[in-house]
Design brief:
This protein is mainly α. It has 6 helices and no strands.
């Protein structure tokens, strides 16, 4: 992908949407970034997933976490939860990435779409 003005604007829009959704409901990477990278920038599924994970390496959510902490929604005790989840998140992403890079990209794309569909239906129908 050549970094022209259109690609830059699409990447900026992707970041803004993912950041806004992440700040509002705690999601963004897979739900916004991956589809935008696949369909708007026509990147392969696995490349889009890799970029989405790369974004997580930078403390992009630190400002949102600060707002949650400042408002009293998160406390110091909640950061223990964060550390435990983060440690196992790192292990899970490492092991899953070792597996997924060897898989057929079409299977991965279908799994991703199916997973999002199941979650969406569950959330829509849940009371």
């Amino acid at each position: 992908m050549k970094m022209d003005i259109n690609a830059f604007l699409l990447l900026a829009l992707t970041g803004l949407l993912a950041g806004a959704l992440g700040g509002m409901v705690g999601v963004g990477g897979g739900i916004i970034m991956v589809p935008m990278l696949v369909y708007a920038l026509q990147l392969p599924q696995l490349t889009a997933q890799g970029i989405s994970l790369s974004v997580l390496m930078i403390p992009v959510s630190s400002f949102a976490v600060y707002n949650y902490f400042k408002s009293g929604i998160l406390s110091k005790e909640h950061f223990l939860y964060t550390l435990v989840i983060a440690a196992f998140f790192a292990v899970g992403t490492f092991l899953a990435s070792k597996l997924v890079v060897k898989m057929d990209p079409l299977i991965v794309k279908r799994f991703f779409g199916g997973f999002m569909l199941i979650i969406a239906i569950k959330m829509i129908l849940e009371r």
